[in-house]
Design the sequence.
């Protein structure tokens, strides 16, 4: 290989430097980190378009999301991670995640029989609201196949029984991998995901639970809310972890109810909450605005 | 006693018929109840100014609040209860509560060391927002005596220890009785009320719990909320019953938080929720708008 | 025609008495109305399942919505209106509207180019959330034809220019009539409806305006909101009347924003508001829960 | 004066370096600003505890709030402003505001006859919620003197008529100056502030308007809201500028209402909104979290 001076190399590789880079960082809080990182980007001619940082003083933990334009950035796209690892991550013991706006996340939706969350997601997808690809939908029932077909998205049914669960999930994971799926959305999927699958997609499976967690964990939360006589119901989207309805919360919202509401009207009012809260969480995930730390989320602006 | 014809008697007694009567009713749902009761008031020349009713179809239970002007009402004020009992309550197996707008409820506030709920209540009281008397404030600490004195309300301290609790509560109840107290407001009173006292004031003790119940029951709910990483905090006012934080909920409200909030800022944001939610509940109690049924509240408009 | 005794007639006709009757009433406030009407239903063996009434004391106006089961009701369905007119409406100078749960309202959706409200409505329709028929969709552009086709609903395009507007609206109204349309939903339809058409559908055209009315009337409300620097944006659904964005308000909701929001993110956040607020209004209209009085709505529970 | 080497000077002066410095910055957006400023603080041994920045891409404007601990900061407190001016402000054409946590803002409250906002502020003040001094209260009426006296705060009455307004405001401004007042809170003060006074306190007079601005500007907003038939009412706190109810908005909030609400109940519900919204705005002002730019506020976390 012929030796080229560094600058020439950079200029050549830079042909591909388009769009934005998004860098999420987590490390112990140390004075000077912000200065160093913003300096790194600036001296290399990156134009910072977004910066949000957070210090958890109790945990002495530092979090940052920084987004910059790549157009004139001196370091080629495919080397940025390596440079950052060498120059800063090693030095500060950082975890970091580097994304590019041009790389669309690939989402698989899991559904059962209820259509409201699925429709809400597909309507946004179809209208181009989100920077995402949806290569497939998985279900344990046939019911929503017509919805998938309306939107022209492949629909795969894996019926789940106690006996076949492990095998079916294995098949699902194979399919997910073949489709390059980067995260999963459980859009009222009425099955518990096994620990194996959760381990394969850590903080990459988003669930919607139809209560204001941690109230009314588990089955039939609207019935529980009705029985308790609450005056406000809620919905919670969270990453799935090994403990039921106990993963890191991404988004919550609530709606006021009264004594006049029956379980049925709670279910009706809840549907709107569920779909909006789930879609807000999905949107933040797609935009790489979430960091998970100690079972809680840091959500950048 | 000389016999007087009925109409004359009525006219005489009617001299006192001023203000409004408020009737709260609960019984099994039966066709025709609304017609009978509205008819009873109308033919006796009462002018209905407010009617709200609710049927819990699941429990087959009927609830009603009806308010009418007494000015031309043919039945004297002090006989209405008797008439209603005879004509309707016996027939339908009703429970009913009859109030007059001229009879102010008498409230005792229990406090410990935090002033925000107390100030909010006393400011409203002082501005004449509420149709209530506050003959006294009770505390287990001296701290808020200056606030009581600012507003010229007697302040009684009963220090509570494990050993003296029963005796102190007995003394408190004697004082409440002497002051004609009809309901109690626990304005961040940091003591558990004994079952004896609760039994003496059933659905007449209003507490504010600084969480969105049933989430975060018990001590330090803001710490619990912080640990769980919720995105919304709440406050709940409820009637006190024998089970901790499990009484009938009157009012709830919430506030949005983020990962940037520490326990301290949650406490700050929560204070505003607590005082507003408590005052809304107190206001509804004062206006006789609440019925309790199976550990839930029916709250009339 | 052979004479049949009344009771027999009733029993025969009663074969069709199924479902519920819904009666909306408006008249001057007079003592005894509630008693008379509830009595009328009760003595004729109707089982009242829902009653909500409102008195506007300032305007001395009475409003009521009452719903009862027809199964054992003695008056045949097709005579109830006549009886009610004769017995009560004439006497009290009432306006009244009588509906039957079995008669589905027929809705026409008008759209232009934005799909979010349309998808939200069609997803609910498709999931059977609403007791409504949607025989057709009308647009001034071709853009959303694929969405209509996804859901199998006829899609008619009437391009509107200054010159052809009257003729096109006439054609639209003919089509609406042929399809038995009872109300119209403007789901971000970017055309002003003419007075002729409004007069044909008084309080039967529901619009969604993307601001918290009466703030930001007219064009580009998100731009206006951005310019003014508000901290909360809103959406308003209202019946269309002759004055722009000034018809009776049915439903409003809001979302918090910050200085970080651009016009684009306002538009994004607003979309969710718009679709939910519009659908809530449509749902109330379908359920016959709205009365209009002096350019304001009474919305029954 | 004996010459001392710089470092010694610094060490000596540093004896006073306690608490935090808060720096608010505004300038044209230029690459590298964040890096330079965080670097400046870090190399001088300031520990950044809070950083929030915002870029208005449309206006190409940069905003930043940065807070750091002074304890080990090498530059003495009373020289920081000068250093910053020389090193950065001149270079970037910045406007900047430097505050120290130990310097309490001094607030004067203006009131008329309504007590709810005043009580809310004084209760917080009295409980130590805010880092502020309140040396005096000014009113155009005697009514609230007892409230001021309850809290031991001097109360000055300046009756305002058309004729004496200029003279009275001059006297007020003299009093404000004597008391070192840094900002003014209009707690339902029912007088328009003159342009002279506004010019003396630019973006330093906080008003609460009892509507969701820009809806219902001017007098009697609750009456206007009632007439329009809105379903949500609001309150808006803003800095006062020369145009009525048109100054930069700091905070807004809303409450849901129904057709059952009269003007009176709107006023009641509005009171809670007003006091909370005003207090939130005051709190942000006290914490130096607000920058005003082109009649809008940037509100830092």
Sequence:
């Amino acid at each position: 290989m012929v030796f080229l001076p560094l600058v020439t190399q950079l200029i050549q590789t830079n042909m591909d430097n388009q769009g934005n880079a998004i860098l999420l960082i987590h490390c112990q809080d140390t004075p000077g980190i912000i200065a160093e990182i913003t300096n790194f980007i600036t001296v290399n001619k990156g134009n910072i378009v977004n910066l949000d940082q957070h210090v958890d003083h109790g945990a002495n933990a530092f979090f940052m999301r920084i987004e910059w334009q790549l157009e004139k950035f001196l370091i080629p796209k495919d080397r940025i991670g390596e440079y950052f690892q060498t120059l800063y991550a090693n030095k500060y013991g950082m975890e970091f995640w580097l994304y590019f706006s041009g790389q669309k996340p690939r989402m698989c939706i899991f559904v059962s029989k209820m259509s409201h969350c699925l429709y809400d997601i597909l309507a946004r997808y179809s209208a181009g609201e989100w920077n995402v690809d949806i290569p497939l939908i998985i279900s344990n029932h046939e019911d929503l196949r017509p919805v998938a077909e309306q939107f022209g998205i492949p629909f795969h049914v894996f019926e789940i029984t106690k006996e076949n669960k492990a095998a079916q999930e294995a098949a699902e994971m194979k399919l997910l991998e073949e489709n390059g799926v980067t995260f999963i959305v459980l859009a009222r999927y009425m099955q518990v995901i096994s620990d194996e699958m959760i381990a394969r997609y850590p903080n990459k499976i988003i669930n919607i639970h139809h209560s204001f967690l941690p109230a009314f964990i588990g089955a039939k939360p609207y019935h529980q809310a009705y029985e308790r006589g609450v005056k406000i119901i809620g919905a919670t989207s969270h990453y799935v972890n090994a403990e039921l309805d106990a993963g890191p919360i991404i988004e919550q919202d609530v709606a006021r109810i009264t004594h006049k509401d029956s379980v049925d009207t709670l279910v009706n009012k809840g549907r709107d909450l569920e779909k909006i809260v789930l879609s807000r969480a999905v949107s933040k995930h797609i935009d790489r605005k979430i960091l998970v730390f100690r079972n809680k989320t840091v959500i950048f602006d």
Remarks:
- The first helix of chain A runs from residue 6 to 13.
- Chain A touches chain D through 17 residues (CB under 8 Å).
